[in-house]
Model the fold of this input.
Amino acid sequence: MSNSSHGAQQSQTQAKLVLLGDMGAGKSSLVLRFVKGQFFEHQESTIGAAFMTQTVTVDDHVVKFEIWDTAGQERYHSLAPMYYRGAAAAIIVYDMQSQQSWQRAKSWVRELQRQGNANLVIALAGNKSDCKDMRKVSKEEAEAYAEEQKLSIFLETSAKSGECVNDLFYSIANKLPKQARATPQEGGRGGVVLDANAGQNRQKSQCC
Amino acid sequence: MDEEYDAIILGTGLKECLLAGVLSKEGYKILHLDRNAYYGAESASLNLKQLFEKFRPEEFSSAKGGENSSKESEKVFEEKLKEKYGRWQDWNIDMVPKMMMGNGLLVKLLVHTGVHNYVSFKASEGSYVFKQGKLFKVPATDKDALRSPLMGMFEKLRARSFFVFVQDYDETRVETHKGYDLRTMTSRQLYKEYGLADETIEFIGHALALYTDERYMDFPAIHMVKAVKLYEESLARFNTGSPYIYPLYGLGELPQGFARLSAVYGGTYMLNKPDAEVKWNEETGEAIGVSATMEDETVGAGEGEEKKGPQVVTAKAKHAIVGDPSYFPKHSVQVGSVARALCFLSHPIDNVENAHSVQIIIPASQVGRKNDVYVFGCSYMHNVCAKGRYVAFVSTNVETANPEQELASGLSLLGTIDEKFVHICPIMAPTTDGIKEKAIISRGYDATTHFESTVRDVLDMYRRVTGKQLDLSQIDANEAATE
Ligand SMILES: Cc1cc2nc3c(=O)[nH]c(=O)nc-3n(C[C@H](O)[C@H](O)[C@H](O)COP(=O)(O)OP(=O)(O)OC[C@H]3O[C@@H](n4cnc5c(N)ncnc54)[C@H](O)[C@@H]3O)c2cc1C
Ligand SMILES: Nc1nc2c(ncn2[C@@H]2O[C@H](COP(=O)(O)OP(=O)(O)OP(=O)(O)O)[C@@H](O)[C@H]2O)c(=O)[nH]1
Ligand SMILES: [Mg+2]
Done:
C-alpha cells in the first residue's frame, strides 16, 4: 500500500468505491466483469464477498479500487452509514428494463448528495444495455438527469457483453483527484493496523 | 420477512451485532431487526441531530415549529445546528464511551472475523490517574515507572518484583507460580506477600487491572493478575504509551462492522421497525417468533404487481430469539445505573499534554466514593466532531440519589465546557439464561472502561444459542503493526 511499491515514477491512489442500486440491477455482475472478466447468467444475490480490489493505471498513475458491494443491506433500506464513509466514488446502477430500478437510482442520488462527502465522484450506470430493445428508461432521460444533478459520469453498460464496463471504472479513475488520497487506514498520527498476518513485532517490554 | 430463520436478533447494539456476525459466518440464517432507524441501539454513536432529538427534544421540536411543514422546519433546525457546530453529519457521539484494549477480546474477534478491514483505528495517546488532586501519567515502560513520581523509591523496588512476577506468570507453567496458587489466594493476600502499600495497590487494581471498585480484592488473584497482564500486553502491542485503541468515526462503527459481516454472509437487516415484538407460546413460555409491520415488499417482483400496503408480518425462529433487554421487558430487571456526561469542548482536556485521546481514572477512594469515575477524551482527529472540537465523557456507577453530582470530580478536570448532556442509564440484565425460553438476552453495558466484559457476555450468549463454546484461545491477534 505504499507509494513506491509500483515502480519508480508511478504514484498510487487508493480509492474506496461503493455500488448502489436496486436489487437485481447488476451491481455484483458489474464488479465481477470488471475484476474477473466473468459473467454469470444466474448470478446469486450477493452473499459472501465483502469487497474486492482492482488496480487500474491512467497516465502513469495507479488507482487501487477497493470496491464495496452492498451485501444486500440496502434491500430494506438498512444500509449502514459506514458503507459511505471515506468513499471516493460511487456507482449508482439501474436496470434499463425497469422503471422501478430507475426510480430507486434517483433516490440513491438524493441520498448520496445528502450523506456522501462533498467531493464524491458519482457515476450513473444504466445496466443491461445488451437488452436495449426491452428498455423502459430512455438514454435521453437518464442523460438529462445526470447533467441536471451534475453527476460526474453517465454510461450505459452491460455486464453481460462487457460493453462500457471498463470505460466506467477508468472514467472514475480519471476523475479522482490525483494526489494520493490517504485512506484513514494508514493516514494520520497514531493510526494502527490490526492484522493477523503481519509479522511479530512485539517487544518484550515491561509495564513498570 | 415471513420465513423461518435460525435465529432472529432484536436490537443492533454491539453485542447483538457481534453475535449476528459470528453466527452468520457459521452458516446460521439470521434476521436482524431494530426499532430505531440507525445501527447501534444503546451502543450507537449518534450524529448531532439524533443527539438533540434524544436529549433535548424540546429544542429539536421547537425548531421544528408548529405550522411549518416538518421537512421545512427540520431544515431550519439543521441550519441552527450548523451555525453553532458545523455539519451535523460530522458528529458521532458514543452513547457508551469505552476504549478497546489493544490485545483484548474485542480485537481478537475483529481480526478473527475480518471486520477490522471495515474500520480504521487510532491508538489512544495516554492514560492518566488522579491522585491527591493531580493527574499522573500511568507509566508505560519500566523506565517511565522508575521516573514516575507516583511511588517512592523503596516502594518502586517492591512493586518491581511484583510486576516481574506478573509478567512471568503463566498459568500452564507451574515453575512461574512461585508457590502461589492464584485460584485460591485472593488479590489482597498476594499484595500482602509483596508488601505493597495501599496507594500502590490502588494504582494496580484501578489504573492497570481497571477494576471499577474494591470487590476484586477478595476474589481469586488469578483474575487480577490476568487483568494486569492484559494491560501490559496491550501496551506492548502498539508501543504508543497507552493500551487503548479507538475506531475512527466512533464506537458506533463496531456494531455496523459486525452487521455488515452478517449481511455479507446472508443476514437480513431491517431497521426502523418501531413495533418489532417477540411472540411467545403462552403454554410453553417459549419465544417463537417476531412480528413487525412491513411496508409493501413488491421490490424485485414483477412490475405491475398490486401494492398491498403495510402489513404486520411474523417471522419464526428455529433456535432462538436474541436481543437486548428492552425487547424482553418481562424477562429483565434493573441491576444498577451508570451516570454519563457527554461534553463538547473547544480545547483539549486540561493537563494531559494536549492529547487528542486520553483516559483518566479517578480512583473511588481519592474522591470518597465506592466506584471509580472515568474520563475519556477524543477529538476531531477521530472524526467524531467538527474540526477543532473535542469531546469528553465522564461516567461512573451511580451510588446516590444525585447522580449528576457524582460526576463533578471528572467534570472539574475538563476546563471550559461548551455543551453538556447528562444521562442516567439503567443497566438491565436478564432474569434467565433463556435456554428453556429460547430467548437469549444480553446484559446492559456496564461502567468498565473497556470491552472485555462486553465480549464475555457475547461469548456466553453464543454458548446459550448454540450449545457450543467459541474458542478464542485459538485466535492469536498478537501480531500487529503500528504505522
Ligand atoms: C460483582 C462481581 C462478583 C464476582 N464474584 C466472584 C466470585 O465470587 N468468585 C470469583 O472467582 N470471581 C468473582 N468475580 C470475578 C469475575 O467474575 C471473574 O473474573 C470471572 O469469573 C472471569 O474469570 P476468568 O478466569 O474466565 O477470566 P480471567 O481470566 O480472570 O480474566 C480475563 C480478562 O477478563 C477481564 N475480566 C474478568 N472478569 C471481568 C469482569 N467481571 N469485568 C471486566 N473484566 C473482566 C480481566 O480483567 C482479564 O483481563 C466477580 C466479579 C464481579 C464484578
Ligand atoms: N442481460 C443482462 N443481465 C444482467 C446484466 N447484469 C446483470 N445481469 C443479470 O441480472 C441479475 C442480477 O444481477 P446481480 O449482479 O446479482 O445484481 P445485484 O444488483 O448485485 O443484485 P443484489 O445483489 O440482489 O442487490 C443476474 O441474473 C445477472 O446475471 C447485464 O448487463 N445484462
Ligand atoms: Mg449483488
Residues 79 and 265 of chain B are 40 Å apart (CA to CA). The first helix of chain B runs from residue 14 to 25. Chain B has a mean pLDDT of 91.
